[in-house]
Amino acid sequence: MLSPRERKLIAEIWERLTPVAEDIGSDALLRMFVTFPGTKTYFAHLDISPRSAHLLSHGKKIVLAIAEGAKDISQLTVTLAPLQTLHAYQLRIDPTNFKLFSHCVLVSLACHMREDFTPAAHAAIDKYLSAFAAVLAEKYR
């Protein structure tokens, strides 16, 4: 799936983006809510307006989880096990939303990273986010 070079690139990118996790995560969430309004259903109890404390906080949590998984992609299932259970059994999030969010993350990264978001980085991050979404959705089977 991912070559050693891609794994290294992914880990480097997410390590570099950790300090701006709030910005990237909240931007990706906002993009998802605007582009796919049905995804707001799960956040009805939160203030999801641009730059709100809830949006920044949740966006940061998501990006930090993505970054944590990128440290050792071979252990992604183990790393995400608690999030799998939370999203499948407690929150009951539609797993399609993971794919939608992944796309929004790609757009946010492209905006944030600009020229550093090379075709190679794009391809590697896309593969990783697809794997991330698939692992999160495993408990739904």
Plain-language structure description:
The structure is a single chain. With 141 residues, this protein is mainly alpha-helical. It has six helices and no strands.
Number of strands: 0
DSSP strand content: under 5%
The biggest sheet amounts to: none
Q: In which range does the helix fraction lie?
A: over 70%
Spatial separation of the terminal alpha carbons: 22 Å
Q: What is the string of helix and strand elements? A: HHHHHH
- In DSSP terms, counting alpha (H) and pi (I) runs of 4 or more, how many helices? 6
Poorly predicted sequence stretches spanning 5 or more consecutive residues: none
Average predicted local confidence, pLDDT: 90
What's the alpha carbon Rg, rounded to whole Å?
14 Å
Secondary structure class reads: mainly alpha
Shape: globular
List keywords for this structure.
141 residues; mainly alpha; 6 helices
Q: In summary, what is this structure?
A:
This protein has 141 residues and is an all-alpha fold. Helices cover 71% and strands 0% of the residues.
